[in-house]
Design goal:
By secondary structure, the protein is an alpha/beta fold. 17% of the residues lie in helices and 26% in strands. The strands form 3 sheets. It has a 9-stranded mixed beta sheet, with no helix packed on it. It has a 7-stranded parallel beta sheet with strand order 2-5-8-11-14-17-20, with no helix packed on it. It has a 6-stranded parallel beta sheet with strand order 3-6-9-12-15-18, with no helix packed on it. The termini are far apart.
């Protein structure tokens, strides 16, 4: 059973799973913030998985396409976040007062820091961390920490550890970013790089690992 505050508002086609918590004044499924919507009147939809915490004053727009705006499972979305049309948020993602431009993809286990925003069509890789106050205009590969002034400057070791990734596998992430050879990355982690490369549409952020 979901816990949906009586002051939350669902509009249009919204499909929601189980054990979600939705806070007051959150609005889900309203039309895409796309000026052509008012010309073409496309009826989009939102699909939300299970066990998500979606706090207060959040807006999640419906898609402006035949696909859906999607949120996976076990995500934590803090107050005042905005998820634009056609965004895809994976599993175990944290969005902290974040604004996602349309068509942004946030892969599983990513953490987007307080007051950050993304340009449309941006892809944020799995297990990555976006530092607070960042404006992301380029794609962020998996496993990395990004801040505006430095780009991707560090492996997100703490995030990997918190996700239960073994030390030997974390070591393989360091090797991969030195050699850029996928075979140096643990086989269980290779899928996250493959998914990122398949979905990335914008140039990658600058990478300069400091450790």
């Amino acid at each position: 059973m979901n816990e949906i505050h009586k002051l939350a508002y669902f509009h249009g086609k919204v499909i929601i799973g189980e054990k979600n918590k939705v806070g007051a004044y959150t609005v889900i499924g309203t039309p895409a913030e796309h000026k052509n919507y008012y010309i073409n009147d496309i009826e989009g939809k939102v699909i939300i998985g299970n066990n998500n915490i979606i706090r207060e004053l959040i807006t999640i727009n419906a898609s402006y396409s035949d696909e859906a705006t999607t949120i996976g499972n076990n995500c934590f979305i803090t107050a005042h976040s905005h998820i634009g049309h056609d965004c895809h948020v994976g599993d175990d993602v944290v969005l902290a007062k974040t604004t996602l431009g349309g068509h942004t993809k946030v892969h599983s286990f990513a953490f987007v820091g307080l007051n950050s925003a993304t340009h449309q069509f941006t892809t944020i890789g799995a297990f990555s961390l976006v530092g607070g106050g960042s404006f992301v205009t380029k794609d962020i590969p998996p496993f990395l920490i990004y801040i505006d002034k430095k780009g991707c400057y560090k492996i997100n070791r703490i995030g990997l550890e918190r996700a239960g990734i073994a030390e030997v596998k974390i070591g393989s992430v360091y090797r991969y970013y030195i050699t850029q050879d996928i075979d140096d990355l643990d086989k269980d982690l290779q899928i996250f790089v493959e998914d990122f490369k398949r979905e990335s549409k914008r140039p990658n952020a600058k990478i300069g690992i400091e450790e």
